[in-house]
């Protein structure tokens, strides 16, 4: 539980919470707490409603995630971020891939084809030229270092080293390894820093400490070590070999985080692993190993030893824990834990209530936050003539910003300490000197892997000042700017400030004079910390970044809109002036997200705000603010829900306003008042459960509320949320779902444009359906005919095996049999071969997309259609309503609506509504649709057999490509020929089926068109048809652009396929309406067409009276809570499950970047061969 809770920043949470339960109480008792302490804790938790028991009701969660522990595979994480999880079975290929990427970024020339085979397929016959063997002499020991050599293996103090399960496992693995004669490699610096002295106690008791020490894992202390850069220096010979030969060395540790430059200056690749795996990697000595198939070493008997040979079993671990981990150990170790040793006891302790600052201390120094602080804050003012201190890319973490680890005497921090008489050996780490702002501000942005894009190739804490073209340290440049009176800004990409919530990642930039950070997106806790230190977070508008705006970082920036009426998420104007006087103007979003944060920023930060607040009170009146405890079980306690204008991370303000307008069924003007910056009570005088439910519903809409106990009942502007309206309800402003102009639906109910079918028409349809059901039987009869002819040939033509032309007779006899059997097999194949591809969609979350579900339900009530049981989305250009479970859902009316996301991306709500109504209206014709569905099942089977490749076709194609032997190619050609013949015969059956069913299918479509026009309007219907053609063509072009996947050297894929289609449409668009001839509307209906021609569909509904009940020019994508996230998820599923492309997470690049690099392809899609 502690491990999962502690790692919450890595899974993007503010905290990980496990409620206190009986297991927690048992832990307190086992670890030596007194019964009095335990009783106090238990009774207090019970009174507060915080103790989880079997009777405790489940909390109200906004989302539930089911996680199957059986699916967990052994994993490590790296080489740069803790969230980059790697399956242990893929660790070798992952390291090799990252090595190639690292060397390429440093300008090393690489044979991409050979490197790909070496990295992905472990082809050792094509070892790349960049591999190095560097000889090293360490004392009397000689060895070689390579790329991937592990030079640090550390069982560190973070999180896992108070967990007996993994530490006992590490000890047992070490013991088994020692028994087989294995040792750690001589170039690996090993260390062990438990989280508690009890750990060393139970390891000694289990006789496991000595095996760990034999492998080099001696206890170095009980505190932060390698994870924060406190591993100490590497041996001089090793660090010199790494630096002089530019080796990519590695570290493996059991800590929490492995951000770039954090662990050690000499290790470019840093991996997180469990303690037993740390021991295993120390023995292996390299990341270039696959523990599944490669031996970890050679035993004393000369035989290879594999990891599986020394890995302890769960039974062994459990038995050792039971025998060795005792409650008495905790009581003994912690009985006098606060007394300390003699050194601690003999420290001089000053008297007095106030801390006395030592002016000579280089560890603790009074920070300048309150120097010359006026009682009232100065008025806000805009930022003028600002310069860029650093131009940064994506995923800049707090470890890139905040000082961490050791530093050299040549660094600004080292020079400062030397000037104060501190020798290099006494420098210590940044973390030990965090109480001295002079050291910490000199270490801000000092990460050795920081890439400041103001400089072309230099990594580290360097930048440029306009006074010179020579790089100088970021600290020195900031001091120059301070002396000149120049304010500073940072420009960055996505996820600025990700990683741990480090206070110095905000304090440091503030002390350097940074006034604002402009980024594509912020990690939410760091964004809050910036505001708390008086640094203004500004976010580029959607679709913009410094690259798209053409910013170089050498401009002078003016930021206006701060001084006047600053409020949450205000649009701020920025002007960037280049050296030549040219200007680039753009808007950014002020990421001060709440009114409280506005107050903090006005005071230059939360520290100043709190101090000023205290100074305003009489000292004798200052007392602790009351702590309000939510008494969940007290039914008499009443609460209120308060909204202060804060919206959820990643949400767009206008979309949240629209969803709230729908939720409250009120006008946009009244919703805008909620975002005035003042707290508004939305609901009051309700119990806690209702308040939670109400707050959760608003959170689904993107609005974040707080719950407070009622002191008095204030007036509520919106009162309680009304019950959902009936289908013919109308709001006060004449609007309904999603802001669409809606008129009364009564008239639609009274005058249905679809005439019911006659008895004779239904009878004819029944007969046609019966004939359709006989088509497969006739096809089976044809197969039987061929089988009979083949058998007749075998029995009747034995005379060919006699006579003078014996060889020719045998040849003809046998070949005819083979041909007959192949023909039969080809004809039978469609019955048994699984489809080669299928349409992959995924379920739309009802909780996350509640507004869209409500919209669809409204349409269903309007058209009288059964509401879909589920809604799914995919990357196709179709909108379809189907019985997805075949005959089962056919009988149950189990309807599924599938949305092709490109349609929502490129259509207005009116056009999108037209498509939805068309699909839903088909299901109002219940009898006809059931008959039509039976026909469709037959037609689809024949069509799929004719057009689509199945599993056997794909295997035959693969065989053709992988062999050039004529002995194989000739039989393959024969097989393909008979498959071709069988498809031609199937084509005849397919055309017959379409001729039989075409008339009835076209009636279904025509009736659906009538309903669509009646509800959505003729113009929306017409334009939706035209856009469908454009979407289909552009989708094909988008598939063509993915053809680079056939090249093993380039696995890059756009992270958003729907956005790629939109980019193609935008480039191809001439701003004029496409002519009907081009987009297919002039094609004629034929006897085999299942739908009328587009022109006939348009002509047939021109005169239909339209109610135009749903009209909106807003993009249909606004109907979804997070359309971009949906699109990216659907894209990844399509790549993996339909296109079957092999790619890693890092292969996904922005759509713009992919589009620019790929260029337009004018030919037919190369991907077609994968499906048809």
Number of helices: 41
Q: Structural class per helix/strand content?
A: alpha/beta
Helical content, roughly?
Answer: 40-55%
Principal-axes geometry comes out as globular
Number of strands: 28
- What low-confidence regions span 5 or more consecutive residues with pLDDT below 50? 619-635, 711-752, 1045-1049, 1070-1083, 1160-1172
| Strand order of the biggest β-sheet | 11-14-15-16-19-18-17
The biggest sheet, with number of strands, parallel, antiparallel or mixed sense and barrel status, is: 7 strands, mixed, barrel
Mean pLDDT across all residues, rounded? Answer: 80
**What amount of the residues lies in strands?**
5-15%
Domain module tally: 6
N-to-C span: 51 Å
Q: Report the radius of gyration as a whole number of Å.
A: 36 Å
What is the gist of this entry?
The chain has 1172 residues and is of the alpha/beta class. The protein folds into six domains: 1-72, Aconitase, Domain 2 (3-Layer(aba) Sandwich); 77-333, Aconitase, domain 3; 383-614, Alpha-Beta Barrel (Aconitase, domain 4); 639-709, Ribosomal protein L7/L12, C-terminal domain/Adaptor protein ClpS (Ribosomal Protein L30, Chain: A, 2-Layer Sandwich); 763-832; 842-1070 and 1084-1158, no CATH class. It has 41 helices and 28 strands.
């Amino acid at each position: 539980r502690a491990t999962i809770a502690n790692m919450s920043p890595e899974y993007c949470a503010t905290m990980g919470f496990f409620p206190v339960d009986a297991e927690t109480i048992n832990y307190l008792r086992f670890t030596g707490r007194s019964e009095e302490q335990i009783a106090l804790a238990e009774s207090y938790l019970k009174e507060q409603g915080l103790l989880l028991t079997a009777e405790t009701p489940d909390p109200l969660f906004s989302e539930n995630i089911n996680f199957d522990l059986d699916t967990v595979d052994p994993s490590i994480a790296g080489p740069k971020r803790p969230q980059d999880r790697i399956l242990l079975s893929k660790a070798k290929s992952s390291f090799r891939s990252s090595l190639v990427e690292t060397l390429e970024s440093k300008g090393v020339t690489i044979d991409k084809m050979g490197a790909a085979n070496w990295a992905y397929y472990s082809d050792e016959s094509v070892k790349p030229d960049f591999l190095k063997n560097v000889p090293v002499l360490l004392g009397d020991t000689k060895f070689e270092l390579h790329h991937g050599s592990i030079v640090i293996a550390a069982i560190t103090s973070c999180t896992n080293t108070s967990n007996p399960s993994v530490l006992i496992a590490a000890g047992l693995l070490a013991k088994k390894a020692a028994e087989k004669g294995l040792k750690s490699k001589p170039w690996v610096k090993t260390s062990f820093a438990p989280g508690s002295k009890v750990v060393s106690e139970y390891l000694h008791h289990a006789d496991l400490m000595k095996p760990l020490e034999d492998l080099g894992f001696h206890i170095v202390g009980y505190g932060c070590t390698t994870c924060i850069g406190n591993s100490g220096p590497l041996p001089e010979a090793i660090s010199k070999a790494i630096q002089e030969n530019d080796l990519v060395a590695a570290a493996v540790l059991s800590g929490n985080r492995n951000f770039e430059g954090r662990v050690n200056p000499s290790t470019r690749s840093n991996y997180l692993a469990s303690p037993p795996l740390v021991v295993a990697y120390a023995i292996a000595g390299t990341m270039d190993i696959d523990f599944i198939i490669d031996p970890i070493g050679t035993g004393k008997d000369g035989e290879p030893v594999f990891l599986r040979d020394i890995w302890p079993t769960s039974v062994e671990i459990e038995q050792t824990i039971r025998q060795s981990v005792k409650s008495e150990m905790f009581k003994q170790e912690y009985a006098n834990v606060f007394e300390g040793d003699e050194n601690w006891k003999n420290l001089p302790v000053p008297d007095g209530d106030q801390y006395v600052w030592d002016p000579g201390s280089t560890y603790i120094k009074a920070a300048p936050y309150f120097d010359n602080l006026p009682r009232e804050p100065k008025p806000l003012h805009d930022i003028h003539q600002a310069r860029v201190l650093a131009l940064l890319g994506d995923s800049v973490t707090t470890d890139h910003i905040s000082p961490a680890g050791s530093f050299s005497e040549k660094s600004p921090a080292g020079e400062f300490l030397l000037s104060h008489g501190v020798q290099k050996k006494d420098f210590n780490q940044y973390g030990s000197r965090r109480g001295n702002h002079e050291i910490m501000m000199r270490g801000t942005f000092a990460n050795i892997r920081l890439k400041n894009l103001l400089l072309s190739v230099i990594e580290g804490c360097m930048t440029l000042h306009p006074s010179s073209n020579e790089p100088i340290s970021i600290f020195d440049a900031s001091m120059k700017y301070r002396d000149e009176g120049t304010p500073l800004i940072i420009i960055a990409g996505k996820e600025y400030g990700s990683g741990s919530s480090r206070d110095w990642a905000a304090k440091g930039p503030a002390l350097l004079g940074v006034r604002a950070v402009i980024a594509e997106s912020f990690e939410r806790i760091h964004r809050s910390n910036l505001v708390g230190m008086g640094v203004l977070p500004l976010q580029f508008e959607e679709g913009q970044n410094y690259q798209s705006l053409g910013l170089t970082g050498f401009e002078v920036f003016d930021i206006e809109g701060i001084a006047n009426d600053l409020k949450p998420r205000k649009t701020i104007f920025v002007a960037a002036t280049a050296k030549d006087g040219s200007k680039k103007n753009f808007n950014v979003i002020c990421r001060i997200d709440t009114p409280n944060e506005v107050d903090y920023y006005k005071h230059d930060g939360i520290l100043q705000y709190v101090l000023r607040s205290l100074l305003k009170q009489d000292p004798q009146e200052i007392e602790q603010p009351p702590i309000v405890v939510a008494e969940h079980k007290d039914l008499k306690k009443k609460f209120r829900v308060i909204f202060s204008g804060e919206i959820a991370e990643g949400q767009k303000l206008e979309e949240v306003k629209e969803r709230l307008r729908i939720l409250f069924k009120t006008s946009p003007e009244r919703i805008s008042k909620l975002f005035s910056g003042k707290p508004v009570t939305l609901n009051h005088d309700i119990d806690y459960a209702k308040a939670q439910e109400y707050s959760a519903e608003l959170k689904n809409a993107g609005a974040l509320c707080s719950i407070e106990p009622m002191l008095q009942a204030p007036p509520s502007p919106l009162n309680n949320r009304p019950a959902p309206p009936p289908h013919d309800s109308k709001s006060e402003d004449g609007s309904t779902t999603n802001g669409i102009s809606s008129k009364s639906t009564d008239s639609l109910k009274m005058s249905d444009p679809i005439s019911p079918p006659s008895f004779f028409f239904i009878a004819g349809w029944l007969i046609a359906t019966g004939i359709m059901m006989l088509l497969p039987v006739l096809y089976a009869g044809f197969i039987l005919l061929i089988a009979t002819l083949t058998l007749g040939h075998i029995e009747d033509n034995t005379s060919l095996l006699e006579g003078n032309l014996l060889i020719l007779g045998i040849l003809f006899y046998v070949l005819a049999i083979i041909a007959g059997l192949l023909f039969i097999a080809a004809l039978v194949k469609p019955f048994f071969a699984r489809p080669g591809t299928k349409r992959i969609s995924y379920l739309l979350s009802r909780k996350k997309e509640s507004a869209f579900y409500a919209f669809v339900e409204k349409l269903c009530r309007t058209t009288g259609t059964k509401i879909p049981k589920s809604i799914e989305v995919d990357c196709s250009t179709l909108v379809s309503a189907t019985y997805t479970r075949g005959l089962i859902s056919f009988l149950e009316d189990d309807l599924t609506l599938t949305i092709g996301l490109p349609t929502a991306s490129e259509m207005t709500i009116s056009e999108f509504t037209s498509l939805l109504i068309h699909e839903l209206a088909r299901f109002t014709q219940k009898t006809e649709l059931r008959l039509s569905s039976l026909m469709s099942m037959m037609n689809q089977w024949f069509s799929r057999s004719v057009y689509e490749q199945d599993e056997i076709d794909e295997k035959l194609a693969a065989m053709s490509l992988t062999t050039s032997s004529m002995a194989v190619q000739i039989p393959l050609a024969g097989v393909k020929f008979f498959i071709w013949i069988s498809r031609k015969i199937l084509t005849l059956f397919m055309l017959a089926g379409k001729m039989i069913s075409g008339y009835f299918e076209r009636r279904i479509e025509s009736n659906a068109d009538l309903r669509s026009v009646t509800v959505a309007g003729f113009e929306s219907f017409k334009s939706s048809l035209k856009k469908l053609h454009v979407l289909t063509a552009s989708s094909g072009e988008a598939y063509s652009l993915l053809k680079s996947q056939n090249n093993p050297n380039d696995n890059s894929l756009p992270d958003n396929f729907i956005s790629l289609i939109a980019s193609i449409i935008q480039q191809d668009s001439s701003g004029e309406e496409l002519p009907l001839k081009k987009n297919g509307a002039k094609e004629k209906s034929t006897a085999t067409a299942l739908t009328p021609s587009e022109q006939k569909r348009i002509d047939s509904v021109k005169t239909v009276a339209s109610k135009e009940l749903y009209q909106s020019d807003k993009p249909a994508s606004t109907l979804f809570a997070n359309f971009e996230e949906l699109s990216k998820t659907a894209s990844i599923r399509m790549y993996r499950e339909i296109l079957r492309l092999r790619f890693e997470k890092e292969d996904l690049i922005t759509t713009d970047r992919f589009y620019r690099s790929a260029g337009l392809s004018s030919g037919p899609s190369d991907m077609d061969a994968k499906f048809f």
